[in-house]
Amino acid sequence: MVASRNYGDFASEATFDIKPCDLHRLEKGPGTTAVMTREEGLQYYKTMQTIRRMELKSDQLYKQKIIRGFCHLYDGQEACCVGIEAAIKPTDHVITAYRAHGFTYTRGVSVREILAELTGRKGGCAKGKGGSMHMYTKNFYGGNGIVGAQGQIFETYNMAALWKLPCIFVCENNRYGMGTSVERAAASTDYYKRGYFIPGLRVDGMDILCVREAVKFAAEYCRSGNGPLVMELQTYRYHGHSMSDPGISYRTREEIQEVRSKSDPITLLKDRMVNNNLASVEELKEIDVAVRKEIEEAAQFATTDPEPPLEELGHHIYFNEPPFEVRGPNQWIKYKSVS
Amino acid sequence: MGFAGIAVGAAMAGLRPVCEFMTFNFSMQAIDQVINSAAKSCYMSAGSISVPIVFRGPNGASAGVAAQHSQCFAAWYGHCPGLKVVSPWSAEDAKGLLKSSIRDDNPVVMLESELLYGVPFEMSEQAQSKDFVIPIGKAKIERPGTHVTLVAHSRPVGHCMEAATVLSKEGVECEVINLRTIRPMDIETVEASVVKTNHLVTVEGGWPQFGVGAEICARIMEGPAFNYLDAPAVRVTGADVPMPYAKILEDNSIPQVKDIVFAVKKALNI
């Protein structure tokens, strides 16, 4: 398929108005305009669409019981991880909680390896041993089962501020903690202020440019030696908390539909690009087709790749350790452990 | 940590709270409250503070929930004086032990099993009655036998019952003991059984090192039943690895019926 217009017909970049951020202990925040080039737009679109389709494929595979255990999907929140990655460097370090597939992708793990990890195969990024919540790569520390919404975060704020650590604390506020709305769970829902002595920003997490500009601002702030920042991204997840949560017992279908029709991050980007002559509808459709194909191939791999071999059950218990023996379910079953 | 602390404080002030952890893996975030605030307070205050609290929730392996959500805490909590630790298997265990735990004036950790929540069990008339309680610290012989003693707690009790059926066809009659309580452990029931059968196999979902089975073996050696053993005791446990995600690896990291059958045959040298 060939686009019906020459690439020379498109603008090379455009300037967009973005929502101002709410500020806490900051004199000024990120600007209210953002410049996006055609290349950037196409890349953001492709990345967000890839994550969207990858999550929907995961939903499908979970319902077919090919993915087991926990599965927390990211669809709706794509602008967050893509916007963050657009504003940081590959050498920066990122860590997140269990809703990790989007970040795993933006940090450089292929869809193939992510899906194969979800299906528990040896081609998975953790060789099938980690599953949905335990995905890692260089400068990406997972994928963790426990949440930061506990006392530890305040200890961390204290130390980060005391030592002026260049650290951005991001809260992806998708309005619900599992099945409890933020109003019912939090004494204060102004999460960007909860760092108290740490300055904070509240950002429209459905607008990738807003996220990008805010993170650029925050990264600049931190790298200049000013210490940490708290950033609240106001976002939304279309799926329930996890695959065992239908997601409609604590919120209405109407609410979900409203967000989808008015604030979907991919649609917002698409409309901006088309309306500002950065891309054509057909061109974006071609990207959709290519993305679908990539996801299908990855799913094919993920469902046909073999499970990790039983002999490797004991591997990687320790790092950089000479091989030793691991006890199985009884004293006569032994596995070798190799680092 | 926060809500566990609120619950412990409420217990100290005179209420009888039941504090639920989504799974006991999350109790690691709150473990200081369970041990240092709940378990030790009566002792530290020479009896003037009591903490009649129950901590309950799913423990151990589930299905495909991987390393951070599959740990068995029977050994960790069973290690601590001041705590009582119970581990139900059947429906009547769950009901009777929960009631006893709430009525007990001490902190009780009740280790349930997510995989057992959906399993139906027969319940006697008596078990269905309003005030049915099961005493803490008393094991139950689920199946009498003569050739070997199988001791387990929680879901592995079911695996032992299945193994017993398989072995019965080969002429081996297993006595299956459901521990029901980890601490205080009813070692007397196990001893009486070993005196009768002369062979012991322990089965648990947790890791082998410093586990429930290790404790049972140590106590048997210290007591009268040692002289009645015709072979060393055998432990069947979870594999000594963090729980892997991939199904084939997970299946081989928990004790299965075939592992129990194999262990019995090794113990009996058949």
Provide a descriptive summary of the structure in words:
The complex is a heterodimer of chains A (339) and B (270). Chain A is an alpha/beta fold. Chain A is built from ten helices and ten strands. A four-stranded mixed β-sheet of chain A has the order 2-7-8-4, covered by helices on one side. In chain A, helix 1 packs parallel to helix 10 and helix 2 crosses helix 7. The mean pLDDT of chain A is 95. By secondary structure, chain B is of the alpha/beta class. Chain B folds into two domains: 127 residues, Rossmann fold (3-Layer(aba) Sandwich); 129 residues, Rossmann fold (3-Layer(aba) Sandwich). Helix content of chain B is 37%, strand content 15%. Chain B has eleven helices and ten strands. In chain B, helix 5 links the parallel strand 3 and strand 4. The longest helix of chain B has 14 residues. In chain B, 52% of the residues are buried. The interface between A and B is large, with 37 and 38 residues.
Which keywords apply here?
heterodimer, A: 339 residues, alpha/beta, Rossmann fold, four-stranded mixed beta sheet, two-stranded antiparallel ribbon, 10 helices, 39% helix, B: 270 residues, 2 domains, five-stranded mixed beta sheet, 11 helices, Transketo_C/PFOR_II (chain B), pyruvate (chain B), oxidoreductase (chain B)
Largest sheet of chain A, described in full? 4 strands, mixed
Physical arrangement of strands within the biggest beta sheet of chain A: 2-7-8-4
Structural class of chain B: alpha/beta
Q: Give me the Rg of chain A, rounded.
A: 21 Å
Q: Helicity range of the residues of chain B?
A: 25-40%
CATH architecture of the largest domain in chain B: 3-Layer(aba) Sandwich
Number of helices of chain A: 10
